[in-house]
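Q: Make up one entry.
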Amino acid sequence: ASGLKGGHAERVIVPADDAEVAVALREASAAGIAVTVSGAGTGVAGGRVPFGGWVLSLEKFTRLDIHPGYAVAGAGVLLRDVHAAALGSGQLYPPDPTETGASIGGNIACNASGSRSFRYGATGAWVERLRVVLADGRRLDIGRGDPIDFDPGTIPLPAVTKNTAGYLLRPGMDWVDLFIGSEGTLGVITEATLRLRPAPKAVLAGLVFFPSDDAAVTAVERWRATASARMLEYFDQPSLDLLRSRFPEIPGAARAAILFDQEMESVDDPEIDLWLERLEGTGALVEDSWFATTANDRERFRRFRHTLPELVNDAVRRSGAMKMNTDFAVPLARNREMLAYYRRRLEEEFPGRYVIFGHIGDAHVHVNLFSDPANPRHAAALLAEFARHAVKLGGTVAAEHGVGKRKAHLLALQYAPEHLEAMRAVKRRMDPAGILGRGTMVA
């Protein structure tokens, strides 16, 4: 899904259990052969694309058992299947990355998040246990609180709500913390125990349209402080213009939109009246906005949110260009400043050829450029500039996708050489032969 070209491998291995994974890794370590772990292939940063060596596919790891309060899922289980099975038992698995065809192993490897992370955090917050096969074939069965048997060091972490930039080394982290977000470079995750919570009794959703971008951002700042929404998602005017091809009922006066989602005790919950009060004084186009309390009606909003990246990806594919998008987040207080910077520079460099949308509740929106296939450096230079500015504001170069191969170079913008060396030291300890995820994250 990253669009990274030129991948190739000498062998594809499809093990059926941990023992077969261990055999393959021992053989690869002994021969110094690179191994790329394959999930569902939906990652956008290129970590899944091999440049030589072997591909290790976890497609046969499909065990899925649902229990009260937790699920046990093989690395190859798809996110949509975990959601459906949990819901069928009256429970909720909160992480909701946009790509529900992603594998659970991939979600954990990238510490994926999504829109509901505004309330529930990223995937890692819901992982209780992991089964992992190390590069030398050793097998670990680790749970929360199991201490790491060496000092992994410490790196400075930005004051953001979402961050997947490198190994997030910090005091007190446990084994589970170390593997979450490691992008298949420290070990092969084969199975996970995931926490579940009771499914909400009712949900109110709203797609609120605004006559200006400024009004939408002001409303978000107010709602962060006064509401307990599960998500606050943003769509700018170019996003709405693109979506009008599928949703012609979008009001003509709309210049921005915010999608919110609120859990309730019932369809008569007072929270409905509170949201009406929250909308007052925001300048929202209330009469033209859309609201829903039933699952069928909310499906319209889900399609709205998911259709935009689909349209963007389709436009990029048809143009022959590589997808050019950001995954940067900044501290909440710098959200408006970062948005203004994006808009000014995009209008100067790519007028009419971009969209901005995403997780504004976490000050984490995605810029997507429709670049010139004949001149990709123009777009790449602007994205690098955006990365530097996000770091300058105290942010991160990777909030939810990981850095993979395509964006690994951005880590040097966020971390000093000694911090990158601390990450490399962990990599050398866990994978002395350097076989896992070669070219991903850590050089």
About this structure: The CA atoms of residues 124 and 177 lie 8 Å apart.
